[in-house]
Each structure stands twice: as structure tokens, then as C-alpha cells.
Amino acid sequence: MNKFFYPKLAITSMRKNKTMYFPYLIASALCIAIYYIMDSVRLMVIASGMEGRENVYHMLAQFNIVSGIVSLVILFYVNSFVIKRRKREFGLYAILGMEKRHISLMLCWEVLLLSLLSFAAGIACGILFSQLMFLLLLQILHIPAELTFILPVDSIGKTVVWFVIGFIILLIFDIISIWRTNAIQLLYSAKAGEREPKARWALALMGLLALGGGYYLALTAQTKADAITIFFPAVLLVAVGTYLLFISGSIVFLKLLKKNQRFYYKPSNFITVSGMLYRMKQNAVGLASICLLSTAVLVTLSSCLSLFCGGEDSIRLQFPREAMISCYLEEEEKQEQDADRFVTALEKQSEQYDVPMLNAVGLTTVNHSFHYQNGEFSTSGGGDSKTVYVSCYAQEDYNKIASTPLSLRPGQMTILSPSRERFPEEISINGTSYRTQTITDPEITEPGTDICFIFPTVDDLWELTNRIAAEFNDYRLVTYQYFFDVPEDVPHMEQFMESLWSHWDSEEDGAALCYSRTKADEQNRFYRIYGSLFFIGIFFVTVFLTATVLIIYYKQVTEGYDDHDRFQIMQKVGLSDREVKRAIQKQILTVFFLPLVTAVIHVFAALPILSKILMSLGLLDPFVFILCTLATISVFAVFYFIVYQLTAKTYYRIVKAKE
Amino acid sequence: MPLLTVNHLKKIYTTRFGGNQVQALSDVTFSVEEGEYVAIMGESGSGKTTLLNILASLDQPTSGSVILNNVELGSIPDRQLSAFRRENLGFVFQDFNLLDTFSLYDNIALPLVLSRRTPKEIQRRLLPLAQMLGIDALLKKYPYEVSGGQKQRAAVARALITDPQIVLADEPTGALDSKSTDSLLRIFEEINRMGQTIFMVTHSLKAASHANRVLFIKDGVVFHQLYKGAASNEEMYQHISDALTVLATGGKNGE
Fold first, then answer.
1. Minimal Cα distance from A269: which residue of B?
2. What keywords appear on the UniProt entry (chain B) (predicted)?
3. Which residues of chain B does A578 touch, with a Cβ-Cβ cutoff of 8 Å?
4. What is the 3-state secondary structure (H, E, C) of A504-544?
5. What domain range is B28 assigned to?
6. Do B100 and A193 count as a contact with CB atoms less than 8 A apart?
7. How many domains in chain B?
8. Which of A261, A274, A578 sits opposite B102 (nearest CB)?
9. Digitized pLDDT (tens) for each residue of chain B, 255 residues in all
């Protein structure tokens, strides 16, 4: 036999099945490209010698493992779909006299060709885009670094090894599935009759309970700490609920519709409802997966985006000046003198390093957690109350940095609420009542706290501290924060700031523990962490979207082949072209927009809990998050619609094809 | 005035690239009276299926006309064609063409649902018909749960439920075993006795021998016809067999 027989056969059959193989090829090339890009960008980060490169390197490395695994799952899904559709063809080959080992040999050639093509395309794209992606990363990180062009052979090797293993597993899987079926089975494998799905009330009910439970957890989480502990159980419940509801809830609902004769025996409902019953049976899992993937895309993208957009603001609010030094004051009686002595010591130090401190302001702060319920704050308490972390200032201090000074009289106070939560006009703190005013766009926030109290005088602050101290074993924690600007390009700035971390003598200098931060450092740290996160988020979304698009595409194609015969019959029995088209459209629209609608509902239900989690990560303004979420949803919906349009075309072509 | 008149029907297929022309029907003329049971026979490629597709208004003739109950099929606008087909024609196919997503009941009800009849009316018309065809116990079942003969009876019920002017059957016994074939042919005879006009394309001598009249088609023309008259099914079988022998061996000389 001609030695090129099998490669030729493989090429012909792939070309014949190009509706299946083209997206397969694109998907595998894309997965390879993403894997390669992430790996090479990681190496470029190291080579560039940028500041804090280890952090970025490790984050990218972790993502790379995840994306590698997700890529293989995607390829498996696509492959199993393609093989299932081609079983008839293999059956025909078998009838014509090809043995299973011949079919396997042909499959080997196919996988070999496919992998070669996708390696070539994937790595070529990878090399082209990795440089661009590295530039993008630098842009996002706001970190100056050398643009290094390297062509990491290591990355190519790693990518090839990873995906070759993947393709070999796929091939073994294919060959096993060929060997396990016989020719006649292969020939008729697609024709087996489908049983009508049964309505499983118990499962539907469980799904409803799981989903309801997940939503309940997400909507009732009170504090940031709660939000973080509750998040994963809630996600799990919603995921389980979504699967169960798609699988059994949909069938139960359709069966109910079917029972209603007046509704069911109408031309469009008649075909839609009975068609949907089968469609949901076959596609429920796929649709639920699309729904959860879409939710993941939306959540990831909107969170990364809002952290990235809102982070700058939250840093600005923490730093009324360019740099800050903070220390703890211990003894109640001497606190005021301690602060003075601390400032004196600081000034000595600044002279020594020749770092002038301009526009300096000092603030005395008390940070403490309170239980809050119905306008009452108390340090003891519990029950149904929620915990809020509060930093307290005196009006006198606050006015030093505020652009609109306050003039509070005794018995009055102001609450700064960056989360835009409003408090009643009459509140009480440990039994003392105040008339309050809530400011929802404050000019200062303390990292890690929810709200700020501003009292009319320093004495109110002392009184509060003493009360807390009496309650908690004489424990006092008063912070003194010293903010100042520095002229640009001070030579010993770094050394000065570092020197402040150590060598404080509480007797001499009035402070025991001290730390210092600059706005610039904080911004760098922020961009390194959240910039990398955002960058990874973009890739994550690309991988998720690839998975979503592929599932949608292959669903449409399978549906198309199934519906082809069905609509042929309906036309013979007297359904017009227009009616056929309308019936198809109704089903397809329902099937494909159900996951999107559900995903959007999930995201809205997750908004409160997510905004709490984001707050603990430093995003203070929930409006930023809501805006980012809305933007993400709209962009995603448009994208989804385009994918639908494109795949629907393939679908119609298959359905309308003549014998 | 006959129920169905077919005048000088001609159908030429052009292959996709316009090269070869295939003449499926050259000149077919015949008519069917109301209440008749007509079978049409011919070898593969003789144009039977083309003829049936044109009668079913699924295909347009190159020239000639088909008139059903004073309405020329070619004059019906495209948009009303499906409705016309639904209301006036009943179809029985070789491979049943039942929808596997519908129960037998819903399969039979399909044409009425498309014509927007109420659930009550559908039930009123469907149940006696199902009883007559002996499938009333199976109505809740799905096509893949019943035998071929039962499927074909459900298909017959679907064809009859709109009270069509004419039932067009395309090899209705082609996929059935001999027992189911007998029972289906008895059903056809029975509904014909009740006044239903039937036009059946078939290969099967046995099926054709049940008809009142058999048309023979060859190379796109109606070549010969046989009336049953008072003959029994067995005698008719013999006549048809003789005619087919002549047709296959003698060609034009045998006429």
C-alpha cells in the first residue's frame, strides 16, 4: 500500500469535517499561545530586573498552571464532541473493510497533523504577542523596566511538552473509544432513540434550596470578615443549585407547561415546549457550565477592573500627604507630651538625613471595633449586631487636613462613611448619644476600617479610650499619625524612611513602635499586586471566553444535526418555511440566552458580598464596583450576542441543508 | 369533474453546474376521481417520487399543471402553500416520519395544532380515529416505544385527521413486515370504502393489488393502466404481475 495513504486519508477527512476541525484547531492554537505567552512573559519579568519581580513572577506562574489545566479540559471537551460526531464515519470505514487498527492509525495521523498545525500557529502567535503582552503588563504595573526582547527556548520547550502530553492523552482516549465499539454500533450510534426526560421534583427542589441558600448567604453577609468566610460556601451552593435547576428544574417547568393544554396546543408553543424538553435533557449540563463560566468571567473581570480603577482613589484617601509615619502612644496621662516628644525626635532624624518635612500634620487616632445595631454603637454587646471597625479623630485634628472644616459643638459628631452607608441622625456610642451627620465622600480613610468618628474635642476621644481601657484590661491603643510632604528628589529619602522603623526608645522619644510609608511606595505595591491580578484577569477571561464560545459553537452544531431531520419532517407535514424559522429561533434564543440571563442574576446577587470583599482588599467606593460590573456585563452581552449570531448562521446552514 | 387532474406534466432537473439535464417526467397525464384508490407502479428512477413530490406541492413542474378540486397547485402563492398542503393533503411515508420528541397523540395532533384548533376539538377528532386504527391504547407512547406497524398506523392517523381531499402515500408498506403490511392494506381499503381518495406510490405487487386502479409509469410517462373492476385481490395480483413482465421485457410491443 502507498505509504502516504493514511496521512492523505487523515487530511481528507479533516477537510471534510472542517465545521468541526476548524474551531478545534483555533481553540488548541489559542490555548497553546496563551500558555506560551504567560510562560515567556514570566521569564521576561525576571530578565527585566523590575522592582518586586518575584511577586509578579510567582503570580504568573500560578496562573500558568491553572490555565494549562483548563486548556486541557477545553481540548478534551472539543475532542470528545468531534469523535462522537464522527462515529458514523468510522462505522462506514469499518464496513468498507478497515480494521480498528487502521482507523486508529488514521486517528494518529489526524492528531499529529492537528497538533503540528496548532503548535505552529500557537507558538507563532505567542512569539508575536508575548512582547506586546509584556509591554501591556509594564503599562498596567506602572513600573519602569527595560523592554527586553527575549525568545525563551525554555518556554517553547515547556509549552510543547505540556501540550504533547495533552494530545497523547487525547489520542489514547480516542483509540480506546474506537476499540470499545463495533462497526454496526458505530454506524448507528447517532440514531439511538432518546427517552422522554422525567420530571424529578426532588432534585428541582434541592436545586431551588441550594440556589436560595447561596443567595441568602451572599445577600445577608454583614461584615467583610463574614463576606470572606461565606464567599466560597455561597459560590458552591449557587454552583450546585445552578446545575440542579438547569438539569431538573427546567424539565419540571416544561412539564408543567405541557400539562396546561390551552397553552401547549398552540402552534409555536407546541413545537417549542416539546423540543425544549429534549434539548434541556441533552444540554442542561452544558448550559449550566456556560452559565457558571459566564458568571466567572463577569465576576473576575469586574472585580479586577474595579480594584484597578478604584485603587488609586483609596490610596489617595489614605495619604493626605506624600508620606506618613505612625506610632503607638501608650500611657494615657502622658499621651500629649509623648506626641510632642515623638515629633521632636522625628525632626532630629529628618535633619540628620537632610529630608525636609513640609506641610506636616499630626493626627491622634483611636481604632477600635464596635458592635452596631439600630443606631447604637457599643464596645461590648453581640447578638444580632454587626461588627464595624472604626477609627476616631478629634475635630481639631481632622480640620488640619479637611478642605471643608467642621464646626461641631458638644453633643454633635460626624461619621465618615466611604462605603456610602448612611447612619441615623441620632446615635449612641456606649450609651452617650450624639446628633450626627454622615459624610459619604470623605477626604481621609484609615486602611482596614469601615467608618470614621469625628468628635468635637480631644477630650471626647480620651473619654472613649478610657472607657475602652476600663473594659479591656487597661488596654489602650492610640495611634499618632504624622503626615508630611517631601520635595522631589531628596537623596536620602529611602534611608530616612527606613531608619524610622527601628530604634525608638519609648522613654526618650515617647513612641514604642513605629512604621513609615510613602504614597509612592504604596502605589508601586498596589500596581504590582493588582496590576498583575488585572493582567492575569485578562488572560483568565480569554481562557473562559474560549471555553464558553466553543461550548456554544459545538452545541449549535449538534443541535443543528439533530434538528435537521425534525424540521424536514415538519415541513413535509405542513409547516411553512417561516414557521420553521420562527420555531427554531424561539428555541435557540431561549437556550442560548438562558445562561446569560442566569449569569447576570448571579452577578447581581453577588454584588453585596463581592463589594464587601473588595472593600477589604482596599476598594472603598462600592459605586466604582457597580459601574465596572455594569460595564463588564454590557461588553460581555454584546460579545455573547456576536458569538450567537455567528454560530446561529452555521446552525441554520445545517438545518436547512438538503439531503 | 375529477378530483385530481394531471395535465402533460414535465419535469427536467438540471445538475448543479448546468451541464447535464435529466428528464424525470416527460409527459404525464391522468386523473383521479373522488373516492378512488389509485396505485402507481414503476421501477426505481421511473419518476414516481418526482410525480408524488409535485402532487404534494413540494416541487414545481417544468411545465404542465396539477389541478386538485378546481384549484391549480401552481397558482397558490408560496405563503399559503404550507397551509394548503396541511388542509387538503394527507401524507403517509415509507419511513413514517414521526417526530421522536412527540408522543403518538401529539404527532397525530400536529396538523390540527398548526391550524390552530382548540385542544377540545383536537381530542374530539383524534380519539375515534385512533380507535378505528387500533392505536388508542398507545397514544401516550413515543415513536421509539412502538412497532413499525403501529408507527405507520399513527402516521395514517396524522394523514387523515385533517379530513384531506386526497391521501398521498409513498411506499407505505416499504418498511413493514408482512403482517403489518396486511393490516395496513386492510386499513387503506377500509378508509377508501368510507370515501377517502388514496393515491399510492409503490413497488409492492401486493400493495398495488388492493387498489381499484393501477397506473404503470416508465421513463417519465404513464405507460399502462389496469382497472380492478370485480376482480379479487389475487386475480388483480396476477394481472399486475403480467403487466409488469410485459413492461420489463417487451417494452412498447407489449401494449
1. B113
2. ATP-binding, Nucleotide-binding, Transport
3. 79
4. CCHHHHCCCCEEEEEHHHHHHHHHHHHHHHHHHHHHHHHHH
5. 4-254
6. yes
7. 1
8. A274
9. 789 999 998 888 876 666 677 888 888 899 999 999 999 988 777 788 888 888 888 888 888 999 988 888 888 888 888 888 888 888 898 888 888 888 999 999 988 888 888 999 999 999 999 998 889 999 999 888 888 889 999 999 999 998 899 999 988 888 888 888 998 999 999 999 999 999 999 888 888 999 999 998 888 888 888 888 888 888 889 988 888 888 777 655 444
